[in-house]
Amino acid sequence: MTFPFDALRRRPDIEGEGLVAVDAADRLILDESASARSGLTAGELVVIGDAYGALTLAALHDGAEDVRVHQDALTGERALAANAVDLGVTGYRSLGLTADLVRGARVVLLRLPRALDALDDIAGLIAAHAAPDVVVYAGGRIKHMAVAMNDVLRAHFARLDVTHARQKSRVLVAREPLAGRDPQPRTARHGDVTVRALGGVFAGTGIDIGTRLLLESLPREIPGDDALVDLACGTGVVAVSLARQHPDRVVYACDLSAAAVASAQATAEANGVADRVRVVRDDGVAALPDASVSFIALNPPFHSGAAVTDEIAPRLFAGAARVLRPGGELWTVWNSPLRYRAELERVVGPTRQVARNAKFTVTASVRRTAR
């Protein structure tokens, strides 16, 4: 029986035209690895970067047992779980990007991350802890691949083969692991702020120009004694700034990305505010109660996996509107051509411009009272 790829969905991630749950790269990885997977025993297969479960569930359908899986995005984990329930498939475990994920693995199926430092973290972890005969099938869409990815894999594996392209996808096959290492945050100093970042987190150890404008614009006084929120926190730079400027307040920092959450925690520790910054992996602010906070800062992402979409920010605006108290404020920085102000007015409430430079705009939206 052929695996029903068409039954897979992306939810709770954004769904819509052009946003797919499975693509040609997933199918090519599965095809190229089929013979290697057929000889495995329980626990010897690992899947990393599986967007919505196609690799994991198809491998289980083919007979794999006790598959270990790591997905950076929380929405990916939840989509995999929902798709597994829909198809009646069991037999996998979701784990963090640690030694336990890959220890003793003999085959690893990997969707190539777009960031080279993320690939370096993953490849180093596999080389350090997988079986000596491990084979890594690392695939992606050619438009998102770079020759430098070959160099990263060659730094951790003695042999690298490249498959023929199919449907604008390709697989890199790595064997014979060399010395590896566990992922460690990279560190950079920006004035009086230390940024720590694991591979793949937006802006890495830098501070992007949008975040810089938001930091320059944040209010010096925020009424109340409730938690301040850094939504889609990335490396936690805004959370650290809020904690420093408001030493009597707790900061709630949240992000979908496991790497971002670990990075934000490390950044808070490096700047001496970890006792007042609570970092949570969350889908927006889903874990916060309605009307529970009075201030949220947001630099919204515009990527869902490899896809660029303008549907992420409105979802975050809606979540912020739900958890803000009437009169509470959402401070947002956004690329000016995106023209989010009308959407902020509609979803949150009256919105004013706070700052603007050549590329970015910062606005403050006041949560309207219930009608």
TrEMBL record:
InterPro entries: RlmG_N, RsmC/RlmG, SAM-dependent_MTases_sf, Small_mtfrase_dom. Keywords: Methyltransferase, Transferase. GO terms for molecular function: methyltransferase activity. Residues 193-363 form the Methyltransferase small domain. Pfam families: MTS, RLMG_N. One of its GO terms (biological process) is methylation. Residues 7-175 form the RlmG N-terminal domain. This is 16S RNA G1207 methylase RsmC. The lineage of its organism: Bacteria, Bacillati, Actinomycetota, Actinomycetes, Micrococcales.
